[in-house]
Amino acid sequence: MGSNMAEAHPVGFQWVMEAKARGAKVIHIDPRFTRTSALADQHVTLRAGTDIAFLGGVINYVLTHDLHFREYVQSYTNATFLLSERYRDTEDLDGLFSGYDPLTASYDSSSWAYESVAAPERPGRRDKEQAASSRHGAGGPTVEGHAGEIAADLAMEHPRSVLQVLKRHFCRYTPEAVERICGVPRDLFLDVCRAWTANSGREHTTALVYSVGWTQHSVGAQYIRAGSIVQLLLGNIGRPGGGIYALRGHASIQGSTDIPTLFNLLPGYLPMPDTSHESLAAYLESISGRNQKGFWGNADAYTVSLLKEYFGEAATAENDYCFDHLPRINGDHGTYRTAMDMVDGKVFGYFLLGQNPAVGSAHGRLQRLGMANLDWLVVRDLTMIESATFWQDAPEIETGEIVPERCRTEVFFFPAASHVEKSGTFTQTQRMLQWRDQAVAPAGDQRSELWFFHQLALRLKARLAASTDPRDRPVQDLAWDYAADGDEPSSADVLRHINGIDLNTGRTVSGYTDLRADGSTSCGCWIYSGVYADEVNQARRRTPRSECGPYDAEWGWTWPMNRRVLYNRASADPQGRPWSARKALVWWDEERGEWTGDDIPDFERTKPPDYRPPEGASGPEALRGDDPFIMMSDGKAWLFAPAGLADGPLPTHYEPHESPMRNVLYGQQASPVRKVYGRPDNPSNPAPPEAHSDVFPYVFTAARLTEHHTAGGMSRQLPYLSELQPELFVEVAPELAAERGLRHLDWAHVITSRTAVDARVVVTDRMAPLLLDGRVVHQVWMPYHWGSVGLTTGDVVNDLLGVVVDPNVFIQESKVLTCDVRPGRRPRGPDLLAYVADYRHRAGITPRTGTRVVTAGDTDRPEHTEPCEWPEDPS
Amino acid sequence: MGVKQWIGQWPVYRQLTGTDPLGRGSAAQSARSAGLEPRTRGADRVVDSVCPYCAVGCAQRVYVKDEQVVQIEGNPDSPISRGRLCPKGSASKQLVTGKQRVRTVRYRAPYGTQWQDLDLDTAVDMVVDRVLDARRKGWQDADEAGNPLRRTMGIASLGGATLDNEENYLIKKLFTALGALQVENQARI
């Protein structure tokens, strides 16, 4: 679902075809018919933005027909736990959960806790804008007391047991509701339910694949939660052939999340400290919690070892290991917030490192106007990209909004070294690190990022060496003594330091359980610990597949500890026996007193299945022998999330921010906590219950082509790829073509309240009209790779988007919006601005449009806009 | 050249008399094509690499001759890719050797209308100056309630998903020490 694997990840898709050849049934659920659909046994077209309704329907089907894997659910999930009496569901509150504050558009999640676990009530404001929200994705959600006995009903019949709450929450997600919301005929939907449940259980497993078709939504995190709930109910997590596969789109996007260049994270999903963390102890308590289970209990060892790697000798127990050298976050510092701050003149310098936001980020126009308002911009890339040349050839030059002679941004372009001109690791989409050897030296001024940041660090340290300003102390104390490889650090030595070093012996540690909180170890990223075990670069291993076992354990290295299937303790039953012979993966060997199997067990090796923690235990020690989910604070997989999410403990169908439909399930139209930025430069198309949504009557979605790569910097410049996909196009159904007078291969343009872009028309049955609640709704699709530079050029499709983001992870909703489509080319120059302004006028759009995020019941409906100068309303 | 040898050069003769009756193999081969050999054969060395496009992680073999990349192929040993590459991975030799690659630093002065040349070392020094300036202008010691912030909002960075783990590690480490926290990459997008 939400993935076009055959075209976006073609070489990975060979394994789907391999499975199909061995008898697996392949189902593709996606708005558009693609080559993935063509190779699947079944394709299901659904409206973009309605996957939670579909999955909620599957959950409802499983629970009403009692098809869940009862023993797995009972033992390994939180289905048996009882919830607090204060909890109110969307069933009770017209689409809201208990704890909602309309003024701040955020939740106080204290009422979502387990009955037996105290959770103090907190004002919502803090959750939304302060630390908690920006911490999501870091660590595990902490809830005090999860190591103790949690009130439960093993029969799962108590009305406040998670399973019964789940049943009630999803009861209105009937096949009829799925048909009305998603446009999926009832029989087709039931076919999917039957196939999914029939191929799950002791003897069978089903795998679920998603891509950015799931993440790029205002409820993206809840899409994945919904998929997880189905997979957990059916016992498909931690087992061979099961799982949830997140297919990622850049060579090391997994790595850049694990070792994050992200504002809210430190390496290994440790949170970036925020203003509430007055000391290292306070910070650690916020991760490890009090009296809770699991391996976040050792966060002190991970954190102190990181600080030892960052600040070396300067980091001591007396000074909290330089914890106060770390800057503090206090809200949303995500890339979209930053782009708006650039427009507002609050940011002075910007580095772009192999990324092209002028084309690749949502609302390209906002990105370019931001870059045009900087003191300086550094672009490091292989080739000239639109983000380097915006002052020459941005669309805003044509409209007169950027004038080179009046644009003050100083631009430095540094040519980068390519993947064969440097050595290092990428982490691929299944957490596997693979080392690349350097093949040739880069030419001319081309350099790696390693060289560039090494040079910056050395020169900045030299410049600040004599400073007495306390703000310069972190730079002075920064440990930067990696082994040299010419005039840059040895990447192998950096990887050694990421792995971790025993500071007493100077040798690499063998894994994260070796790390200590007393300053005797250093480690750059605890989850990568083991990648350089025994002083050997494990990521460089290349034992051919013909010579490896079934899990290819000697090819590359997978975090954590080279375990290929996460939570694989769940592949065995509570007593440690495989659920079935054909689905054996790891099991308890009674004779040898250890876990063993085809994969490396994701469990303490010698902890027996019948282990019960002593009174008062916490952290790893508190995990029972049948608690497979060793990172969770209660050792269980969460069907219901009692903490950790900004937008509710259970996934709920909300309409996208821009939608042609009223929500048929609740009064609450869209996510009540989605983050909107009501600003004149970020207008929204109206959605029901607002008026004039008919001005933008079509659903728009965008995706990749096989032959191009994201913003095109690595593909539109290449002759082969440009010849294979020479031009931007827009796919429409024959019925829509007739409705709007569009002709195959002629020009058409797509319009939103942000801009209009033009492209060649492809009239195709791949885009099927949907029958929704008695009316026909059309979907429009475009690839988004084009821009002004390269061998093939075209309009920037991401310019059509505005910015509205998921409150958990601040990822934008770019997979679904509304639009109009008209024949012919768009107006050029300043006429384009007038044309789009006219659309806004007709739709009654102001900066307030779309910002009244709560629509349930008869609560107040405050606007959520930014304080800035607004032009008068067009009306 | 004898008559027999001369006749034997005719494709039709070879097709009729040889092992290739359909004329789609050796019978159709010219002297020129018989003399061709794959670029991989003359390589000085073969280097293990990984495809730089999507996150599947297909293994590549990079063939180098005279310190130039002459070919990039899939590596059949890989349990992930079994030697396959998609159109993008197959085009990656063009990615690294094509003339679109920029070789020298380019500089655009404020209000400028043209790119200019700039020496690499000078350019890095200029960036150092500007980092310190932007850091100072955007510095925040504490929030309104007096909680320490010790950060700068004057500098932002975007990128990392196409880079190596080792590079991301040093980028985050340096920016964190500088107090710059608006460090982001494609994973947020």
From TrEMBL, chain A:
Q: Which residues form the Molybdopterin oxidoreductase domain?
A: 1-384
Quick one: where is this thing mainly located? other
InterPro entries, per this entry?
Asp_de-COase-like_dom_sf (IPR009010), Formate_DH_Act (IPR048158), MoPterin_dinucl-bd_dom (IPR006657), Mopterin_OxRdtase (IPR006656)
Q: Enumerate the Pfam families for this protein.
A: Molybdopterin, Molydop_binding
Where are the stretches annotated Disordered?
A: 118-143, 597-622, 852-875
Gene3D superfamilies linked to this entry: 2.40.40.20, 3.40.50.740, Dimethylsulfoxide Reductase, domain 2 (3.40.228.10)
Q: Where is the composition biased (Basic and acidic residues)?
A: 602-613, 858-867
| Localization per Swiss-Prot or TrEMBL | Cell envelope
Keyword set, alphabetical order: 4Fe-4S, Iron, Iron-sulfur, Metal-binding, Oxidoreductase
Instruction: Output the CDD domains linked to this UniProt entry.
Output: MopB_CT_Formate-Dh-Na-like (cd02792)
Q: Where is the Molybdopterin dinucleotide-binding domain?
A: 699-808
Say if the entry is tagged with keyword Chloroplast: no
Name the cofactor(s) required for activity, per the record.
Answer: [4Fe-4S] cluster
Q: Which family does it belong to?
A: Belongs to the prokaryotic molybdopterin-containing oxidoreductase family.
Q: Which PANTHER family match?
A: FORMATE DEHYDROGENASE-O MAJOR SUBUNIT, TUNGSTEN-CONTAINING FORMYLMETHANOFURAN DEHYDROGENASE 2 SUBUNIT B
From the Swiss-Prot or TrEMBL record, give the protein name. Molybdopterin-dependent oxidoreductase
This protein's species is: Actinacidiphila acididurans
Automatic annotation (TrEMBL), chain B:
Q: Does the keyword Transmembrane apply?
A: no
| InterPro entries with a match to the protein in the record | Mopterin_OxRdtase_4Fe-4S_dom
Q: Where are the annotated segments for Disordered?
A: 21-41
> Which residue numbers delimit the 4Fe-4S Mo/W bis-MGD-type domain?
44-100
Localization recorded for this chain is: Cell envelope
**Pfam families in the record, alphabetically?**
Molybdop_Fe4S4
Q: Which co-factor is required? A: [4Fe-4S] cluster
- Write out the biased-composition intervals (Low complexity): 23-35
The family this protein is said to belong to: Belongs to the prokaryotic molybdopterin-containing oxidoreductase family.
Among Gene3D superfamilies, the record links this protein to: 3.40.50.740, ADC-like domains
Q: Which domain of life is it from?
A: Bacteria
Instruction: Keywords in alphabetical order, please.
Output: 4Fe-4S, Iron, Iron-sulfur, Metal-binding, Oxidoreductase
Q: Does the keyword Disulfide bond apply?
A: no
Coiled coil ranges (UniProt) are none
| Protein name in UniProt | Dehydrogenase
